[in-house]
Design brief:
five-stranded mixed sheet
C-alpha cells in the first residue's frame, strides 16, 4: 500500500501527523500513518467542526506505541537494572539536599561517613557470599568463559550500586537527628546500612540466578515440570526460558544427592 498523500489534509493536521509520525517506532510507522490519515481525512471532509479529541487521541496513540516499544526492548535488561539503581542513588542524594538545604553540607556529611562505608562494605560482601544461594551448573556452549566474564562485570556493577544506595539511604534516614544525637545517629546508621546492604545483595544474588547466562536478560515464562510426589525418582521443579532463545534454566523443587543445584542449558546444547 502506497504512502498516503498528506497534502489532502489541512496544514495543521498535516503538521501534527508528520511530527507524531517520528515518535512512532519505525516498524509500526507505516500502518499507524495510514490509519490516522484516514481518520483525519474522514473527519475533515464529513463534519463541519473539528474534533479536538481526535488530535489528542492521535498523539496518545503515538506515545503509547513508543512507550510499548521501549518496554519490550528494555524490560529485564542489564541497562534497565543499572539505570534504575543509579537513579535511586541520585534520588537519595537529592533527599539529603532537601534535608540540609545545601549541596556543600550534604557532601560534607557524606564525606565524614564514607570511611565507615569503606570499612563495613567488605564485611557485608563476605557475609553475603557466605549466605548466597546454591549456584547453577552450565551445560553447552563453547563461549562460556566470555559469558562468565560478562556476568561478573554485571554483578560487580550491580552490587557496587546496591552498596552505595544502602549507604546513601542509611545516611539520609538519620541525618536529621545527627546534630542532636550524634552517637545514636552513627550507631543506627551503621545498623541500617548493614541491614539494607544484606537485603540488597541477597536480592542481587537471586536476580543474577534468574537471568539468561548469555544476554543477562531476566528469564520469563516459568513453568512447572515433573511430579512433586516423585522427588526421589525423577527431577521436578521449575523451568524458565530466555525470551531471546539463548537457553533454559531448570530449578529443582528440592535438593537431592543427584540434583543439588539449578542447571542452565545453552540453546546450542538443546539443539544438539
Amino acid at each position: 500500500m502506497s504512502h498516503p498523500n498528506l497534502h489532502d489534509l489541512k496544514p495543521s493536521d498535516r503538521t501534527l501527523l508528520m511530527l507524531m509520525e517520528r515518535v512512532v517506532p519505525a516498524e509500526d510507522r507505516a500502518d499507524w500513518l495510514r490509519t490516522w490519515y484516514a481518520e483525519l481525512w474522514h473527519l475533515r471532509h464529513n463534519t463541519r467542526r473539528a474534533n479536538l479529541s481526535l488530535s489528542i487521541g492521535l498523539m496518545r496513540d503515538a506515545l503509547w506505541l513508543r512507550t510499548e516499544s521501549w518496554r519490550r526492548a528494555y524490560t529485564g535488561t542489564v541497562v534497565l537494572c543499572l539505570v534504575t539503581l543509579a537513579s535511586l542513588c541520585v534520588i537519595a542524594t537529592f533527599i539529603s539536599f532537601a534535608i540540609t538545604g545545601s549541596a556543600r553540607e550534604t557532601f560534607l556529611y557524606y564525606g565524614v561517613r564514607f570511611p565507615h562505608f569503606l570499612i563495613g562494605a567488605p564485611f557485608v560482601v563476605l557475609v553475603s557470599f557466605a549466605m548466597s544461594p546454591t549456584r547453577h551448573v552450565e551445560q553447552g556452549s563453547s563461549a562460556r568463559l566470555r559469558y562468565w566474564w560478562k556476568r561478573q562485570f554485571f554483578f560487580s556493577a550491580k552490587a557496587s550500586l546496591l552498596l552505595l544506595l544502602s549507604f546513601l539511604f542509611s545516611a539520609d534516614l538519620f541525618e536529621a537527628i545527627h546534630g542532636a544525637y550524634p552517637l545514636t545517629s552513627d550507631l543506627l546508621e551503621i545498623v541500617a546500612f548493614v541491614i539494607l546492604a544484606l537485603l540488597g545483595l541477597r536480592w542481587s544474588f537471586l536476580d543474577q540466578q534468574t537471568r539468561c547466562k548469555q544476554c543477562l536478560r531476566s528469564l520469563t515464562t516459568p513453568s512447572r515440570v515433573g511430579r512433586p510426589s516423585h522427588n526421589l525418582l525423577e527431577w521436578n521443579g521449575t523451568e524458565l526460558l530466555c525470551r531471546d532463545g539463548h537457553g533454559s534454566l531448570s530449578v529443582p523443587e528440592m535438593e537431592t544427592s543427584w540434583c543439588q543445584s539449578s542447571r542452565w542449558v545453552y540453546q546450542d546444547s538443546i539443539a544438539s
